[in-house]
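Researcher: Please generate the 3D structure of the following complex. Treat every line as part of one assembly.
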Amino acid sequence: MFLRNCWYVVAWDHEIPADGLFNRTVLGEPLLLFRRADGRIVALEDRCCHRLAPLSKGRKEGDCVRCGYHGLKFNAEGACVEVPGLESVPPKARVRSYPVALRHKWVFVWMGDPARADTALLPDNFSCDHPDWRNIPGYLHYDTPQLLICDNLLDFSHLSYVHEKTLGNSTAIAQVRPEIEKVPRGLRVSRKVRNVPPPAYWARARDFGGGHVDRWFIYDFLLPGTLLMHSGGRPTGDAEGDMRRAVELHSCQTLTPETETSTHYFFQQSHRAALGGEWLTQMIHDGLLVAFEEDRAMITAQARNIERGPEAPMLPLAMDAALVQFRRLLAQAVEAEQA
Ligand code: FES
Ligand SMILES: [Fe+2]
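Model: Done. Output below.
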């Protein structure tokens, strides 16, 4: 059961070609995306109303798309405007169209009632596209349900173990209890870890002289599955609020169910533009990809185990607090929507 009346990221802006057709499945529904002549993005059901062929196997004709099977032509609103060999188009001939929003390079689709699409509900993914911040956009495909990845992002104690050699570098991260607060449509999770060695890649961006750092991870995790995080660290001993020698990062990550059992993962980790040039942006991105492969390997293996024994109980522990709360929030939102 998916939450429908919300925005889901379907693509990075650069993935949708200026001329051509792009398809991606969201919540089990095949979507076709393309651009009008003025650049605005259109999202239609990728399933011709005639014999259900994917429209993405057809071709774009101006602001319209023509099915590649028997040639029905649809406009950007999804209405069929031409049936080869027929004088008039049956009024029922149309495919569904989805509201689209573009914000800071994320392309969102509204999967619920179009009348309820509300851009006030878009998350603030500012660092995806901001002159003070630098990043490289990332995408990963997961063969697991979306919620298992949400669980992972809601409990950073795994940094100490899954990411021992990459993002973690200290068992102290797992020992600290985060603060969890409610925010509109989600949770705020704040974890502060004092006096730990910096992760290896920081040492290449900043000279910590072999010393320790105080680290922070402060993020909002919002429905339907978006993480917006300020993180960073400063040399242990520097006062809280002193940013002169700090490493400051901002990350936007979002999880869009492709189906019940597979997920799209869009992410970027930004650093302050003043921290370094292109080499640093590339290094952070490459490091993140290594770490995210560590997550994917673990979560995929976990998902296969769950499939093998769906009856096996899990053991609830204190470290699960945020993910339990988020799952409850999502379940309540889905329930409210169906009422
Ligand atoms: S299936 Fe599209 S025109 Fe026949
Ligand atoms: Fe992770």
